[in-house]
Design a protein that fits this description.
mainly alpha, 260 residues
């Protein structure tokens, strides 16, 4: 009865009868068999997690068969294949890091690194991020932002980016309920436009303010925000600090100032 109970336990753990026979005859240590089966189960769990991630994402997004096939292939990529996909996206967006040192910094901060044993959430995030990197519109958006970053940060030492300047200038105004058509708002626009003109090496005129508005609108694009959110999930970072409200407030104040 004890032997039968042991057989039942080993079978419940997924160990085949041939291995059980060897264990009972003491021809093979039970621990060795358990280790081999544990690894097999781990592989099965990873496969099931990938399947669950793809099916959950497909159900949530109402994906077509073609989209499901793409998501499945992205989920099953090897580490080397993922690295090649990311490297191609970064090179397309930022060019050769030897030609632009700043691009090397941005590459490191924008490169996803999926763990060897990712969670379902990380797999789902990787699939969505990989799809996003193949979007020509998103690539163009990121390339334009990088070009503006590179111009601003060309002198040494690097200076605070204009988005950070907007956030730190606007946050206290929003906290105190300053109106968009107030003198304080107009002064904030003058301050930011002047800083942007200095960073660009240009004069503060209508053309520069149009360029400033376009740059901040691009920086506030939901696709960039989504990329950074997905990147944080994949890399296990804390949630990114987006300043959407501050940027929207400033863009509205800038439009008011130009109309006035």
């Amino acid at each position: 009865m004890e032997r039968l109970g042991l057989v039942r336990t080993l079978r419940d753990l997924g160990i085949d009868l041939a291995s059980i026979h060897k264990i009972l005859d003491r021809r093979i240590p039970a621990g060795q068999v358990a280790a081999a089966h544990a690894e097999a189960v781990a592989v099965q769990m990873r496969v099931l997690r990938l399947r669950y991630a793809v099916l959950s994402a497909a159900a949530r997004r109402g994906s077509t068969l073609e989209e499901m096939d793409l998501m499945h292939r992205l989920a099953l990529m090897s580490a080397a294949e993922r690295d090649r996909l990311v490297a191609e996206f970064l090179h397309s967006t930022f060019g050769d890091p030897d030609d632009a040192p700043l691009s090397l910094v941005l590459r490191r901060s924008l490169a996803p690194e999926l763990p060897d044993d990712p969670t379902t959430e990380q797999v789902e995030a990787w699939v969505e991020l990989a799809e996003l990197t193949q979007d020509p519109g998103f690539r163009s958006l990121m390339r334009g932002l990088f070009t503006d970053y590179a111009v601003q940060d060309a002198p040494a030492p690097p200076r605070k980016h204009i988005v950070a300047r907007v956030a730190e200038t606007v946050a206290p105004l929003m906290a105190t309920g300053v109106a968009l058509d107030s003198l304080e708002a107009a002064q904030a626009v003058e301050k930011i436009a002047g800083a942007y003109a200095d960073l660009q090496g240009r004069h503060d005129d209508a053309g520069l303010r149009e360029s400033l508005a376009a740059h901040l609108a691009a920086a506030n694009d939901p696709r960039r925000e989504r990329y950074e959110s997905l990147l944080s999930i994949i890399n296990g970072w804390g949630p990114p600090d987006f300043r959407r409200q501050e940027l929207e407030w400033f863009l509205a104040a800038l439009a008011r100032a130009e109309q006035g």
